[in-house]
Predict the 3D structure of the following.
Amino acid sequence: MADTIDDSRYFWKARTNDGHTLIGFNDAAREEFGEISSVRFLTDGPEIHDGQDFLNIESPNTVSDSTVLHAPDSGQVIKFHTEVRYQPTWLIALIGERIGW
């Protein structure tokens, strides 16, 4: 089995009152990626696994045209914040966990 890629350094995780976990970009991601111009979710299944291809972003600060990020945790997917596809800057904005997750 191939080694998984650990991109957890780019994400914060927060537990909600109902036991779910929200994830979003942290300061390390903001510093490394800067402005994000495009976001695409790479999975639409009911589960995600730690290290699985998870998110594709486009940023002028990355070497290639796009960067694939890997899931920082495993679990059942309840909801994707699909609005970030139309507002990709929300991923890196310092506006709190309720919008940038």
Summary: The first helix runs from residue 27 to 33. The mean pLDDT is 81. The first strand starts at residue 11 and ends at 15. Helices lie at 27-33.
